[in-house]
Amino acid sequence: MTTSLSNVPDASGRFGEFGRRFVPETLMHALEELTQEYEKAKQDPSFQAELDDLLKHYVGRPNPLYFAERLTEHCGGGKIYFKREDLNHTGAHKINNTMGQALLTMRMGKKRVIAETGAGQHGVASAVACARFGLECIVYMGEEDIRRQKLNVFNMKMMGAEVRGVSSGSKTLRDAVNEAMRDWMSSVETTHYIIGSVIGPHPFPMMVRDFQSVIGKEAREQCLAQTGKLPDQVIACVGGGSNSAGMFYPFIDDEGVKLTGVEAGGRGPEPGEHASTLSYGAKGVLHGSFGYVLQDDDGQTMDVHSISAGLDYPGVGPEHSYWKDSGRVNYTAITDDEALEGFQTMARLEGIIPAIESSHAIAYAVKAARQASPDETIVVCLSGRGDKDVNEVARLLGRDI
Amino acid sequence: MTTSISETFATLKSENRMAFMPFITAGDPDLATTVDVLKELSRQGVDLIEVGFPYSDPIADGPVIQESYTRALNNGFHVHDLFEALKELSADESVDLPALVGMVSYAIIFRYGAERFLKEAADAGFSGLIVPDLPGDEAGEFVELTKAAQLDLVQLVSPLTPEDRTKRIVQSASGFIYCIAVAGTTGVRDELPAELTAHLESLRSLTDLPLAVGFGISKPEHVDTLRGKADGFIIGSAIVKQFAAFSDPDQTREDVIASIGKYAGEMAAATKG
Hints:
- The complex is a heterodimer of chains A (401) and B (273).
- In chain A, 45% of the residues lie in helices and 18% in strands.
- Chain A contains 16 helices and 14 strands.
- Chain A is globular.
- The termini of chain A are far apart.
- By secondary structure, chain B is of the alpha/beta class.
């Protein structure tokens, strides 16, 4: 008997050997409660109906599957389509997950939410969800990311969230996750931690994947309706891995669809120069789950680098680790410079300013399209818009705004 | 010769005394200092010593211990070097070293290789390990490996752990039960919570293993609160914060070690009531 790749995790949160719960005992009861509450919510038609209504009328779903004609012509090969998560309210896919988890927070009778953020998109999406439902919101963010993402920090504060700067370690996403976990340790009875990616202890990787799967479900239906067939390739960027997990999951059992996750190749393959966990990492434990990580031989987390604050993370979701080892998904890396090039090409040819995270997927899609024949269809997750990144891009290009 | 954890608690019970277990971070600011601090703590008559392995991403620890970990890692701490240094110290007959308990993240153990880690830890003189991010449910295979290495695997129980879960956890524990006094991270607190007494009584009805209380303890008054209810207590942040003074140019290394020793001596005296 073969097990479908889509039929994971098991009840203990295992994606094959990956996942599980490596957290202090203080958090275990809350994780069990959350797992039970989520299972009940999934069975409750009123929960899904409320979420669907919010996604339609508040988030703006379904968003389009857009045929990028000029970019396709530029590449001279396969047809490139974009799943337009950049058109969601808040301008990124992160809102799909925060609306779902905010509803769960209220079901559990909790009034306080904490979140961590790298690029700020998950922080903004959490602040939005909390403002919408009247929940207290604390967002942890590394001080280096606060510097890089001033616009999002301002937006979070406008919506009533408190942004707490994290000055430990590399002052980026990983340190923000540590600090949010610590807050949760002392506040777990009154507070829900809205983890922003498919990382962390069970049930977070499963739950965030489920909430993000709306991306792939819509893309699958839209592709069938618009092209009459499933796509030949699906491409998405991978940091922690939530937009890609949501995009890939509904295609996992479609063996003919090639799936590619694009990691942050940074300045190159040397340790500390990139954030390509699946390309260069090894198996280990980080932030409550077992998966691929970038660590030294003693298990200490390595410093990582990416042009994108949202991809600047030394771990990856356990389900991606499982997909990598099963061979179902191909993982590759795109460098900072290639991503910048992708950003500019997209802006110039399609009139869309993409998030610098998504620019990694775009840069790879350009390469893939050139190798493909004109009858092949390539669907790319445009996970977010790039307004938040323009100051950083201008700085890197040596331009004044 | 290393004393085992169970022998230590049995002796203390016969003397009607609680165990005092200070926590220090290995390698803060360097391994030579760690060895000298261990010698000083031994001289002060502490009953067990918890040795923390610095980890880059601790989530159970508060800022004092995290900063200590960072100092050690920035100074080039490596697991193997600690084991080598402790092996030498354990063999030193002039030092009456109490039972050593390692506090180490599973991230480190997994990457180092569990069997290799356990063998080297036992050879270095450790009597047991606390692995804070390996809760009872996940510990299955590792429990067997620690037994095979003749090490105790101490399990943690939090005030939020339900009774049915506690029953499962105490079954796979050995050495002692680490009773977390407060829901939260490590760090000094003014008062211990009132519910702690009931929590300890409930735990006592579920296991015969010694109960040691940690998180938030810093003062002799805290020890009085625990007397008759717990078998021991652990002090971390109140000691570790003194290690920051090693980088103070106005204090000599000897003075800082003496100050740590003085505090440990006072707390050791407090166990005698």
